[in-house]
């Protein structure tokens, strides 16, 4: 079976790079620095469906990106979550949070309308992330 990115994830985010297991994408909402890690395995909807090696690798990749992403964004809090209520494909959110952000202290999901990056800002943000986060190809 071949991995295929869910259309909603493709529409709401932009490719940043890949790690051993995960595709890394940036959510297209400039209000919140927000990455997705999507294990490139077909038909996965839950963490417990990953085999043991992939499960360990996923959390290794989260740890690999979490501290540098938090430092890059100067976040006071880094929210790491899985939901899957709207998109069943297994994916994890890394959302950099600040007390002054639009949704603080509540969740970012469903808060207002997304404010997409301009083409110029999107390119700059992706390039910055690729330079600052280790191991992305």
UniProtKB/TrEMBL annotation:
Q: Please list the residue ranges annotated as the HIT domain.
A: 35-104
State the SUPFAM superfamilies in the record: HIT-like
Identify the stretch annotated as signal peptide in this record.
none
Molecular-function annotations in GO: catalytic activity
* Pfam families with a match to the protein in the record: HIT (PF01230)
User: Which superkingdom heads the taxonomic lineage of this protein's source?
Assistant: Bacteria
Classification via InterPro entries: HIT-like, HIT-like_sf, HIT_Hint
Q: What is this protein called?
A: HIT domain-containing protein
Organism listed in the record: Terasakiispira papahanaumokuakeensis
């Amino acid at each position: 079976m071949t991995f295929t990115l869910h259309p909603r994830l493709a529409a709401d985010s932009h490719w940043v790079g890949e790690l051993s297991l995960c595709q890394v994408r940036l959510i297209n909402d400039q209000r919140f620095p927000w990455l997705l890690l999507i294990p490139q395995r077909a038909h996965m909807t839950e963490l417990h469906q990953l085999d043991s090696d992939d499960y360990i690798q996923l959390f290794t990749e989260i740890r690999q990106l979490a501290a540098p992403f938090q430092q890059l964004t100067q976040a006071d809090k880094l929210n790491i979550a899985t939901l899957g209520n709207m998109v069943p494909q297994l994916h994890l959110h890394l959302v950099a949070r600040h007390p002054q952000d639009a949704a603080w202290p509540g969740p970012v999901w469903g808060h207002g309308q997304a404010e997409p990056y301009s083409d110029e800002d999107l390119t700059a943000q992706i390039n910055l992330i690729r330079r600052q986060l280790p191991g992305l190809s």
